[in-house]
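Deliverable D4.2, example record:
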Amino acid sequence: MDMLVRPRRLRGNQTIRKMVRETRIDKASLIYPMFVIDGENIEEEIGAMPGQFRYSVDKMAYELERLEKAGVTQVMLFGIPAVKDEAGSQAYAPDGIVQRALKEAKRQFPNLYYITDVCMCEYTSHGHCGLLKGQKVDNDSTLDLLAKTALSHVEAGADMVAPSDMMDGRVLAIRTILDEKGYQDVPIMSYAVKYASAFYGPFRDAAGSAPSFGDRKGYQMDYHNRREGLKEAGLDLEEGADILMVKPALSYLDVLSDVKMETCVPVAAYSVSGEYAMVKAAAQAGFVDEASMICEMAVSTYRAGADIYLTYFAKELAGFIQEGRIG
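Output generated by the structure prediction step:
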């Protein structure tokens, strides 16, 4: 048969397949989400997320060491306080759990890069992401507290802050206070396009952040909407965001691709707790090959446009990159 064009020529062996890859992954683009909790001597496995733990400050060094050895140099910290109140005051307390974790982590592992989640849901007694006015989350009064939280994280040593609350105007409020206090060089990675998703369930178990009433559909995005993602991304860029995030990753690859194509800043994607839990459950049941699933999910996210990948599988992916399985 006379064929001049044979695509299979470039699939003949591993060497040529790797040489012509369109999508490449580097360890430097991985961020590991990590839960820190008030208390002592705590290394508590999260029931809905097998293999993930809540660490007290005195125990987190073991995990940070494992990350550093694996070549994962970026960590996103989520705090779980001992006491919650309506104003989420432990979010911005100078001696809050994230603030103390940052200081200790910086002392022991100064070469790691620390990003903090800025939100109120882990700290409020009602589990919502801002201050309440009746039964509704009040956008504008929440902005001051988010700004205070971000500032307290930076003062404690955060290299970057990442607001995840989805309040209108929060990036501008944070950028303004950081600049006023002399932290012009601290970047903001905005959860710019964050959907109200069922994929967050295991995280809410991990952080104890499920809302005590209602839901978050009044401030997180409707998953029916695609173009709205560009609206949110554009607003956050105007307010000073340095990196834009799409969350979740796997079910929103079309939105991720849109944001990548229409903006000129780095784009992150968060492979959330529900994605992690599904892979773990299916693998434990013997239905899928866990390693292959992890790799394919990651590559699909990068292929859609992600420059940065937040994932609970960061250590595993770093290992697969090292082995040459992906990369």
